[in-house]
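Ticket #4471: structure export looks truncated?
Reporter: QA, pipeline team
Priority: medium

Steps to reproduce: submit the single chain below to the structure queue and open the exported record.
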Amino acid sequence: TRLQGDWSSDVCSSDLVLNADAADKDFLDSESIQDCDVFVAVTHDDESNVLCSLMAKKLGSKKTVTIINNEAYFDLVGKNELDIIISPVQITVSHILKYIRKGTVSNVHKVKKGKAEAIELLIDNRVKNISGKTVEDLQFNENINIPCIKRDEDILMAHGTTKILE
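Actual output as written to the record:
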């Protein structure tokens, strides 16, 4: 079910488009919001996105996806009140940082409200000095940590004795 917005030809024939205020509790109840798998709020208005998502969550929606542009709203929303918060600003910063960082960086994510970065690196023949060493051999300072390593489809928790492989 989709609420009416600025829709074009992307609406599938199996979608139901409803024209109503997404913050209207009676409307959400009448449409059985508690049976909704995911409620998505992606308007250009952060306040509407947050309030509608909070309302949908309170009324029983299983998950919420909310776009928030203004980072001041992140502090207003409790840690577990909304499920997925998308920040176009953070996505843009991450893409820019990916190109600024040297080496074989495949992705950069700002975390902890911009106070830290999670960097995804590809270990290949361009960084031969790392391949074959253990995490503790790298002797990072206390501000750098390798929490996990992806090998093929497996995610490994990285410990001091975990070997870095190409």
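Status: closed, not a bug. The export was complete when the record was re-opened. Leaving a note from the reviewer for reference: The radius of gyration is 21 Å.
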